[in-house]
Amino acid sequence: MQEPLVAFEQLQFSYGEHTFEFGDAAILPGQIVVMVGPSGAGKSTLMKLLRGELDPGEGRVYIDGKRVETRKKRLVLDDSKAGWVPQLDDLQSMLSLEDNIGHHILRMDDPEKQERIEELKRAMHLEAYSGQKTKTLSGGQRQRVSIAKAMAGKPPVLLMDESLAQLDLRTKSSILLDLKALVKQEQFCALLVLHDPADALLIADELWVVQSGRLVQRGQPKQIIEEPINHHIAGLFDYINVVPSDLNIDGPWHTEDDVKWLYSHDLPELGEEYEMDRMDSPGGSIIVYNFQGHRLLKK
Q1: Measuring CA to CA, how many Å separate 83 from each of 130, 147, 161, 200, 221?
Q2: Cα(26)–Cα(3) distance, integer angstroms
Q3: Euclidean distance between CA atoms 87 and 162, whole angstroms
Q4: Residue 142 CB partners (closer than 8 Å, separation 6+)
Q5: Could you give the CA distance from residue 182 to residue 188 in angstroms, rounded to a whole number?
Q6: Which of 48, 213, 230, 284 has the greatest number of beta carbons closer than 10 A?
Q7: For the chain, which domains are there?
Q8: pLDDT value of residue 74
Q9: For residues 76 and 55, what is the distance between their CA atoms, to the nearest angstrom?
Q10: Whole-angstrom Cα distance, residue 28 to residue 42?
Q11: What contacts 105, CB < 8 A, 6 or more positions away?
Q12: Is 68 within 8 Å of 81 (Cβ atoms)?
């Protein structure tokens, strides 16, 4: 049985009146976990706990079998344990992409260091830009350099917190697929926060759903989409309709307390007399209905 590269137990953190209870979870070698949830749910807080940037109120964090040391014990964070790609890259714009990638390589001799830099350039498709200063690169190319830099010292885990949010769909998809190939090849693990559910489904082996400071659901993407524990989670992945549970309307509704919900693609056609608007999209038409005072979407 494989030992996890990242694990935490009974993990909790508090500040002021806010309490985050993340419980227990683990990530195995070669596994990509994507964390999803609404803004303010606690995703970035969990990232900071894993990096050692925050001290847990309770519980323990382990990376590669060793307990993570926080800022109380270390003056600087240990980049050898967790590669970090921030939302805004921290590259040195006047240095070449090679110098940026090699910045954290401290325990290799020069030939091994150069071999590692070239290895990562190939993996992240940066060879065409060899020798260029990073100030001349596009946003997508800079994020490729940032990922290569984070993994240059071969840390066991890569952490990314909405690092690709500013990129267009095609660029994001290309980077994510190259990252996925690198994770599988080198057998480190990755934990990503991604804003777009489509990005999460493209790359994730497992999803972690964070809601109100808690890790409320974990599982394979297909499982969570088909069996979300509440409509708030369902709404992270697609348009949903939520109505009072006593509203008489056909469809495979899921009842939840005093409301019921279904995905917009499961809503039956209600008739032209209820139609308010119709919008065309690459995936087909989206119809907006007004049914007994409730606005409903049909995909």
Answers
A1: 22, 8, 12, 20, 24
A2: 9
A3: 6
A4: 89, 91, 134
A5: 9
A6: 213
A7: 6-226 (3.40.50.300), 238-298 (no CATH)
A8: 54
A9: 14
A10: 22
A11: 113, 116, 117, 152, 153
A12: yes
* DSSP code at position 204: -
Question: What is the model's pLDDT at position 208?
Answer: 96
**For the range 122-131, what are the long-range contacts, defined as Cβ-Cβ under 8 Å and sequence gap of 24 or more?**
123/148, 123/178, 123/181, 123/182, 123/185, 124/148, 124/175, 124/178, 124/182, 125/178, 126/97, 129/97, 130/97, 130/98, 131/96, 131/97, 131/98
Burial (0-12, 13-18, 19+ Cβ within 10 Å), 127: exposed
Measured CA to CA, the distance from residue 297 to residue 295 in angstroms comes to 7
Give tens-digit pLDDT for 92-121.
999 999 999 998 777 778 888 999 999 999
Residue matched to tokens 């240095």: 95
| CA angle (139 as vertex; 134, 140 as ends), nearest 5 | 105
pTM of the model: 0.90
The average pLDDT across 16-21 equals: 88
Confidence of residue 75 (pLDDT cuts 50, 70, 90): very low
Phi/psi of residue 114, nearest 5 degrees: -65, -40
Q: Phi and psi (nearest 5°) for 11? A: -75, 130
- Check the CA dihedral 198-200-204-209 and report its sign: negative
| β partners of residue 281 | 284
Residue 212 backbone phi and psi in degrees, to 5:
50, 45
Q: Is 290 exposed, middle or buried (0-12, 13-18, 19+ CB in 10 A)?
A: middle
Maximal C-alpha separation, the chain: 74
